[in-house]
Amino acid sequence: MKSILIAVLFAALPISSAFADESTTDTKKIKAALARIPVTDKDLTYKNLAERLPKVGMTVEYIKIGKVGKGEDEPPYFLAGDEVIDIFLNEPNQVVKAICPISGGRASYVIRGKKIIPQTRTAYWLMTNRCDFKG
Questions:
Q1: Strand order of the sheet with strand 105-112?
Q2: How far is it, in rounded angstroms, from Cα 70 to Cα 13?
Q3: Over the range 30-60, which residues count as b (16 or more CB within 10 Å of their CB) and which as e?
Q4: Tens digit of pLDDT for each residue in 5-26?
Q5: φ and ψ at 42, to 5 degrees?
Q6: Higher pLDDT, 61 or 3
Q7: What's the pTM?
Q8: CA–CA separation, 18 vs 104, rounded Å?
Q9: CB count in 10 Å sphere of residue 12
Q10: Other residues' Cβ atoms within 10 Å of the Cβ of residue 109
Q11: CB 51 within 8 A of CB 42
Q12: 107, 119, 132: which is closest to 49 by C-alpha?
């Protein structure tokens, strides 16, 4: 009976969750993840989100990083092998909201090879400095 239970558990491992998330509040890991996401507006002097977020008064509560497994993809949004970074932020101040009506909460990005795809209005604005997110 014990060997059957163990076999069933091992068989279920590959189909566990779509995003084998790693949540962290570790400052170094958060900064490294934010440094991977560029700010694409060349008029700004920020290279990445690690530099931009403090300048706009937003702080990170924690992040989740996961990978989409084979058979867990949802084309065209998530493909097998995509990395998903969810950044959980505080509520932006009124100055930021006047520029773009974003909320706190989650900014999500999909990393597909060298391409970084924002998934939320907040993520799009932080990356591009534009407020015309189509979703």
A1: 22-24, 60-67, 83-89, 105-112, 115-118
A2: 12
A3: beebbeebebeeeeeebeebbebbeebebeb
A4: 333 333 333 433 444 579 999 9
A5: -70, -15
A6: 61
A7: 0.81
A8: 24
A9: 9
A10: 23
A11: no
A12: 107
